[in-house]
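Section 3.1: Structural characterization of target chains.
Under the original work plan, the team committed to producing a structural model for every single-chain target entering the pipeline before any wet-lab resources were allocated. The record below documents one such target. The sequence was received from the expression subgroup and is listed exactly as submitted; it comprises 97 residues.
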Amino acid sequence: MVFELGLPVILLLFGTVWFVVSSYRRAAIAEQTVAELNAETKALMREVRTLEKAVAAAEQGLRTLSSHPSVPRDVAVTADLTLADIRRLTEGKELDH
């Protein structure tokens, strides 16, 4: 039995195959992009945690410094810039980028 396919049916089949292949390619590219973004996000989160630990250690050092009796008062007052002050400055965009 021989099937005779007309031009409209052949064009419909070709169009369907083309659509499926292009959709698959776009989905594969999107999946790869999401994986790259997830990896980048994880790396940035690790960096943020490291920076938060460094800031906390520096803040603790400043508290220790400002409470030490041998430190002059003007140095102790200057050392009282806290993490909250830094966040206020950066979130309020009081610092130039």
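The helical segments are 7-67, 73-78, 83-91.
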